[in-house]
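Researcher: Let's run the pair from yesterday's discussion. Sequence first, then tokens, for each.
Model: Starting with the first of the pair.
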Amino acid sequence: MDCTVDYCVKDLSLAPDGERKIDWVSRFMPVLQSIRRDFERRKPFKGIRIATTLHLEMKTAFLLLTLKAAGAEVSAAASNPLSTQDDVVAALAKAGVRVYAIRGEDRERYYEFMHRALDIKPNIIIDDGADMISTLMREREELVEDVWGASEETTTGVIRLRAMEKEGVLRFPIIAVNDSYTKYLFDNRYGTGQSTWDGIIRTTNLLVAGKNVVVVGYGWCGRGIAMRARGLGATVIVVEVDPIRALEARMDGFLVMNMMEAAKIGDIFVTSTGDINCIRREHFEVMKDGVILANAGHFDVEISKPDLEALSVEISQPRPNVTEYRMADGRRLYLLAEGRLVNLAAADGHPAEIMDMSFSLQAKAAEYIKDNHERLDPKVYVLPREVDEMVAKIKLAAMGVKIEELTEEQRKYLASWEHGT
């Protein structure tokens, strides 16, 4: 382990491998490239301190280097112990980012590193899951007066932050980047859909076609997972608590059941809800032998590991990132990536082209906080529509796509109330 005041990484000599990874993904992130060129010219974050808790892999690294190129002092800790890429964090440390992360770090070190990232006394926070914000509010209250605002990447984090707003404990404004159109419509749906199955297939080397796949939760992430499972040839079953989403899933052509029904016939289960114990003891008790259990939600609480452990008579690891739980009756249930985010813990996360949009929004959210924090109340906000449209236009141009423009006649028509039947 290589540690100084400015960084703590597994092995600084891994930096060249990380640099090559970052260079590779940056070629497929044209929107963030455009923002970086603008930031390098203007230096909007000169003298500003930005602390981050994110999945520390190659696409994230390009965002952090973009913020540094804009003049910011940047610190980083991991938002998940198993999503850190040690060569990438070594490259970040070499580039001057204050990074504290080691793949597989335990809970104690996870929070120790988060505190070290907070030691820069940030003006802006970029969070993924709201752990850094909640830690700041509970344990580092002396830093609050320096914080102008924060942005949040995930559905889970936004849920936590809206709960904080409702209870009146928020002390600074939050930008819910997750709720921007060019984030959730693409990152949550197409990014999660592809990367989740990448993680499952890479880890198990098993066929998806012909299997019953149970998708627990039909939000935007669940939609993507279900869509890609169908494309791989599976019969897809959706489990939902929201009647409107359940109806939508049925009309999208998927089977819809409650968890107990689905538990009896599923071959592969994927959770994506942001809630706790969605698959638990009574469901494990009726599952078939050889079931695969995977989680695509932010925290490792959606599949009850305590219940799995209590029911099992033997626990082993037949493959990397696969834990086998053998039941008393001989059935074997397989949990992937310790129940953590399977797409990041067992694979490389979302494709670069997807994170290009999400991280461009994060960069612009940081600038929006810098420019507007004095007039924003301690509430949860969404970025202005024009930021979404800017990201979409640059992305379309990079893809070689031209869209239609309204004529002046059409603009006037849409702005008028006088035209009728």
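Model: Moving on to the second of the pair.
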Amino acid sequence: MSRRGTDFAGLSVAIVTPFKDGGKVDVDTLKQQIEFQIAAGTNCLVPCGTTGESPTLTHPEHERVISETIQAVAGRCKVMAGTGSNSTNEAISLSEWAAKEGADATLQVAPYYNKPSQEGFYQHFKAISESVDVPHCIYNIPGRTGKNIEPETIARIAECKNMVMVKEATGSLDQASQVLSLTDLTLLSGDDSLTLPLLSVGGEGVVSVVGNLVPQDMIALVNAFRDGNVAEAQRLHMQLFPLCRDLLGINSNPIPVKAAMRELGRDSGELRLPMVQLTAAELDFLRKTLGTYGLLKEGVAV
């Protein structure tokens, strides 16, 4: 089956939003992180997702981070702007801004908290697709939104124009397989540790958190599998697995990844409430994980 959205295959990185001076958006550090990703060969950057602390960004900040990212990238990789909302009108408004600024696509999280019916999901995504003429990625993460977009609903949404991808973060290979069998959407893993399993059933890549730290390793994993070198892909999966598990397991995203970036000298590590810093025990555990991976040696970034 020929799939839509394959231009976004490979590694997309859900980049953090750096803050400094008590919570101001740190554009200079954002630009440094963008250059780091482009140098690594990352295919697509995803600003203002969960990892970018979008729930705590004001609307002007949200728009600014998207605009600054697009301008800094300057066409050297793709930009998939996080513009989803539990308000359809708000999602359309943010998506219109991203499209106007030159985003290559938008990431549309399932409406959260208000828990719409399956028909409500369909109408939400349909309205976005008809209002904003850029490619869109459906983001299904029931662990955060409170409700699953069922495969049959995703199949209906896939019939809407401009809906070309799905970021699959249900943790279910059965769901992913159903979506792939029912649609021609490009499926991207929304869980770093499940990237290889999802590639094995037909996924095309990952929207990654751990890619903030080691994008080259995630690119190598995807490329190895794509090239038919399954043994190498499995080796990289096992190498990456503890880092993926701990970044997303010891506390809520993006608390651990921002702490890791601070340890590596690449971010202030500032968070916005209600996110708070790791406990001393959690930070010690994270440092051990970074050390085992080879990113830290005696507390110093390698």
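Researcher: Give me one sentence on the second I can quote.
Model: The longest strand covers residues 163-168.
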